[in-house]
Specification:
A hairpin with a 2-residue loop joins strand 1 (about 10) and strand 2 (about 15). This protein folds into 2 domains: about 5-100, DNA polymerase, domain 1 (Orthogonal Bundle), CATH 1.10.150; about 115-245, hpI Integrase, Chain A (Orthogonal Bundle), CATH 1.10.443. It has about 280 residues and is mainly α. Helix 6 runs antiparallel to helix 8 (about 180-195) and helix 6 packs across helix 10. It has a 3-stranded antiparallel β-sheet with strand order 1-2-3, with no helix packed on it. A two-stranded antiparallel ribbon has the order 4-5. The radius of gyration is 24 Å and the shape is globular. It has helices at about 20-30, 35-50, 60-70, 75-95, 115-130, 135-145, 155-160, 180-195, 210-225, 235-270; strands at about 10, 15, 55-60, 165-170, 170-175. About 55% of the residues lie in helices and about 5% in strands. The longest helix is centred in the C-terminal third of the chain and has 38 residues, at about 235-270.
Amino acid sequence: MQVGVAENRKPDGVVMDMAEAERSLMAWMAQGRSGESQNIYRRGLRSLYNFLPEDKTIRRGTLESWRDKMLEDGYSNSAVNGMLVAVNQFLEFVGHRELRLTDRLKVARNPQPELTRGEYFRMLATAKAQGNEKLYLIVKIFACTGIYSQSLPMVTVENVRKGRFWVTYLGDQTAFRIPPCLQQELLSFAESQGITSGPLFLTKLGTTPSHTYISHSIANLCAAAKVPEEKGNPRCLRKLYFTMKASVESSFELLVEQTMDRQLEQEQLTVGWDA
């Protein structure tokens, strides 16, 4: 048994201590794991810790509930499997092998289909034709900011006015920026709906829309827009954002290189060996 584990034992489980979880991670990394693996596994440990109830106790069935929550939030099977590996290793480290969840989720061989910008435009045009401004904006905010579906309640009147806000998710803080064109549309929507503060997107019952509700709404929109239904989810829209961002960054890097080359060529005309 590891030192310090006994005091964490409970009749129905084990109390998770993040300092101890970090020690388990360091012991595992000493076996030759990569630095990238360290970041993934630490994220998994933080995710479970944040998911646990106030007493921070891992019980029988806890990992199943945690896994189901991650899947509902849109995590891929491979990402969930990676986080479970870290937690299973922690439970073995503290002498609670019986609480591990060793059933691995199947990972599809075919990659998830990518949404094209043309398909995205058709979705927006269809939402406009249906007069569904709320769904139009929900689709757009995923594709324009890369926000997580579970962080949609953070799209408040106050944050939209600021144009940028932070979200803490799975132990990490991420900044999201709302482009001015979308910011104007969101504030116009809030004004038309009489929303002066708080979240912009709520169900008819005044509750936060769940990941399932959002995905179902987007899938229905895809059907009407003649877009493959498997692309009708927040994950594909977020991927569209990151694809565009990577393309812009690549173009910017090329522009920097070209500008530097031109400047060096001008200098070469002055101080080159044959100048």
